[in-house]
Amino acid sequence: xxxxxxxxSSEVEExxxxxxxxxxxxxxxxxxxxxxxxxISPEKTEPIVSPEGIQMELDEEMENDICKVWDMSMDEVGxxxxxxxxxxxxxxxxxxNAPDIFMGIFAKSKCPRxxxxxxxxxxxMACFQDICMSISKDExxxxxxxxxxxxxxxxxxxxxxxxxxxxxxxxxxxxIWVERIRENPxxxxxxxxxxxxSTNVELLVKVGEVVDxxxxxxxxxxxxxxxxxxxxxxxxxxxDSPEELPDFKIVxxxxxxxxxxxxxxxxxxxxxxxILQLLTTVDEGIQAIVQVPDGGKETWSLLYDLVCHDLxxxxxxxxxxxxxxxxxxxILSVLSAMFASQTxxxxxxxxxxxxxxxxxxxxxxxxxxxxxxxxxxxxKRAGDSxxxxxxxxxxxxxxxxxxxxxxxxxxxxxxxxxxxxxELTKENMLEGLxxxxxxxxxxxxxxxxxxxxxxxxxxxxxxxxxxxxxxLADNLEKRFPSLKVHS
Length: 487
Fold this sequence. Notes:
Layout: H1 11-17, H2 26-40, H3 60-72, H4 84-95, H5 98-108, H6 112-125, H7 129-137, H8 139-147, H9 154-168, H10 171-182, H11 185-197, H12 201-217, H13 219-227, H14 250-261, H15 266-279, H16 283-290, H17 297-310, H18 320-323, H19 325-349, H20 354-359, H21 362-392, H22 401-422, H23 426-435, H24 440-450, H25 455-468, H26 470-479, H27 481-486
Helix pairs in contact: 2-5, 3-6, 5-6, 6-9, 7-10, 9-12, 11-14, 12-13, 12-14, 12-15, 14-15, 15-19, 16-19, 17-19, 19-22, 21-22, 21-24, 22-25, 23-25, 25-26
C-alpha cells in the first residue's frame, strides 16, 4: 500500500514515523484523526454536521482517506485475534483516543457513511482482547453504540451488529455487554424492528447471530425478551429512531427474518432456527411459540415447509444430510417441542382435535423417515472410508464433531417420529399408504432406528397398521421378530 503523504526525507525518520512494524505513516494517520476532530468541533461550519438533521454526503477525499484507515485496521488473517499489522494500527488508534473521537462522530454527525466507517473501524479494533476490554468498559461509549441499533441506515446497523458480535464472542467482556443490553429495553425494540422489517439479508444474518449469541450466553435475558411486547419500551430515546414502535413479540419477528433469509442465505436460516431451538429450552419459550394468536400454526407451517419442501429432498444425494445436519436438528427439535406441547394441551380438551390432526401430516412423517434413510447411507460410507484409519489408531478414538452432530440429529428425529407414529389413526395410516410415505421399506427403516428404545410407539403403530394393511403388518413382524413375540 502506498504511503500517504510522501515518505519522510531519511530512513531514520521513516522508521520513526512508521506505525509499529507496518509501512503506514503515523503522521498521516494522525492527520486523519485531526480532521475527524475538526468535524465534531464546535467551530466547524462545513455541512457534514447538519443542525437541521438532514443527512449529508461525505467529502470524497475524506471518505477515501477514512476508508484507508478502515482497511488498515482490518483483521487480515480472518481470526478474531487479528493480524500483527492490524494490531499495530489498532493500538495506534487506541493511543490517540480514536474511540472518543468516534463517539463524538456518533453523537453529532448526520452523515450515515461517516458513522458507518467509524463503527467499522471500531469493530476492527475490538478484535483485539485488550482493546476490546477498554472499549467495553467505557460505559458512555457502550451506551452510544447500543443506540446505533436504532439507526435507520442499514450499513451502519450492519457494522454495529458486527461490533457487538465481536464483543459478545470474547468471554472476557461478554458479560459486560449482556448486562448492558439487559438494562436497555430499547435494544429489544430495535432488534425486533430490524428482524421484522428489514429486507437486507446480510444485516438480518448478523443481527440473528447477535440474538443467538445473547440467548446462548444468558437465559435471563432470553426470558426477558420472551416476556417482552406487553409493555412500552422505557429505554433511552434516540433522535433518529422510529417515533413509535409497535409492541413486538419475539417469535413473529424471528419468523419474519427467517423467511427473508430462507432462500438467499442457508447459514442465516441455520442461525434463526437455532434461535427458535434455544427458545424451546425453557417452558416460557415453548408457550411463546404455541400460544401466539394462530396457535403456533405459522411457526409449524414454516418449519414443516422447510423439512418437506426445502431440505433433504428425494432428488438430493444422501450426503446432503451432512451439510444440513445442524439446521435440521434445530428445526426438528422445535417441531418436537411443539408437537409434545400441543398434543398435551389438546388431549386435555378433547381426545382428538383438528389441530392435532394438523400436526399429524403424513408428508412430514415421510420426510423424517427419509432423513433417517439418508443418515444410514452416510453412516455406511463413512464407516467404510474410515475403517483403515481407525485400525491405525491405538485404543478407541473419540467421536468427531461430524458424528456427534449426526447423532444429535438422529436422536431428535427418532423422538419426533416416535411421538407422531404413536398418535396415528387408521385414516392417517391409509393416507400414508396411499401417498407412498408408508411402505415396507420406509417402515423397516423407521423400526430399525426406533427399536428398542421406542418399542411402545412401534407397537402402537403396528397395531393400527394391522387395521389398514394386515399384509404389511405381517411382513414387518417377520422382519422384526421381537415385535411378534410381544404381540
